[in-house]
Amino acid sequence: MKLPALPGILLGNNEKAMGTNAVGMEPGQAGKRDERALIGQVLSGDCNAFHELIRPYERHVYGLAYSVLRNAADAEEVAQEATFKAYRNLGQLQDRNLFKSWLMRIALNEAQMKRRKDRQQLYESLDEDVEDDSGYNFPKSHADWRELPSEALEKEELREAVRQAVANLPEHYRVVIVLADAEQMRYEEIAATLSITVASVKTRLHRARLKLQESLQPAFVPRFRDHLAGLKGLNPWSRARK
Amino acid sequence: MVSCKKVIEELSNYLDASVDAKLRGEIEAHLRICVRCDVLLDSARKVLIIVGDERTFEVPIGYSERLHRYLDERMADGER
To answer: Quick check: A87 and B11 CB within 8 A?
Structure first.
């Protein structure tokens, strides 16, 4: 069974900080010089070069829009509009090395404008101060997935429970966890996208992960209790204890 | 030996493999005797595997094609 790579678990922090992946290079970094050249080509009137320029980032743009809007159709509409806006305003990009975070900020602005326009989540804000409370908060209750066999992680039912739990997080946590853990963006890129510090990205991500555990507990217990009872003792994820 | 408080504070760093070897050893020693922290960490690891599974937050089928077609249409309109 193939499970997805999770940066930070399968990769060390230094590798994540450097933005490397299994082949040792982050997609956007792989062609940094080419990317600058592509930007030059687009600005010289070569429209086709723009398609190549944005191809590595189109999934990130959608993911970011989806994390704000929580609706696939709206996220796709915003991704299209944001990407075209990047094309139209490419001449305003001051540092060609920062195209990705510039594009992502456009997508974030578009998604937030769409949300405001549609009057969703009037009281939610990415700018909300979320760094003030102290760090130690053991979840009141949390999912116990110790006995969950690796095969169960492949179940759509479990993915849907996680999707719902992420969707129910406050926006400032939701966006960070989607960008970091689903889109697997580097913390530095997320910080640049959200105009916050790397330390704030890490703080939000930490709290988002804890909140996710808390919110998954009720969803998990009734759905998988029976399943687990039948699989007790067969957990390949358990660490060997001597 | 580190406390539960320290383990929770370092949960994300531990999952990101960004704690040093000494702290990692101390956390793992704590996990061997603290069921509550062990449950939390092990479950968090599994949840993150699911979040990182591209099927969990997959893009809609045909998204890329529609995006590039949209760009072509807008570019063809001469909008710049």
So the answer is: no
**Domain count of chain A?**
2
Contact B15 A209 (CB under 8 A): yes
Interface test with chain A among B53, B54, B61, B66, by most A beta carbons within 10 Å: B53
Q: Say if residue A178 is in the same domain as residue A227.
A: yes
Q: Is residue A122 part of a domain?
A: no
Residue A138 to residues A93, A210, B25: CA-CA distances in angstroms?
Answer: 44, 8, 21
Q: Is residue A217 part of a domain?
A: yes
Cβ-contact A165, A216 below 8 angstroms: yes
Give the whole-angstrom CA distance, residue A197 versus residue A191: 5
Q: Say if A12 falls within a structural domain.
A: no
Kindly report, residue by residue over A94-147, the tens digit of the pLDDT.
Answer: 999 899 999 999 999 999 999 988 865 555 555 454 554 444 455 656 666 666
* Boundaries of domain holding A78: 31-117
Do A174 and A99 reside in the same domain of the chain? no
ipTM: 0.91
3-state helix, strand, coil in chain B (%, to 5): 70, 0, 30
Q: Do A51 and B47 touch (CB under 8 A)?
A: no
Q: pLDDT, tens digit, for every residue of A190-226?
A: 999 999 999 999 999 999 999 998 888 765 554 444 4
Specify the length of chain A in residues: 242
In chain B, residues with a C-beta closer than 8 Å to the C-beta of A143 are 43, 47
Top-confidence residue, A151 or B23: B23
Give pLDDT tens digits for A80-97.
999 999 999 999 999 998
Contact B46, A237 (CB under 8 A): yes
CATH of the domain at A64: 1.10.1740.10
Residue A23 covered by a domain: no
What's A197's domain CATH number?
1.10.10.10
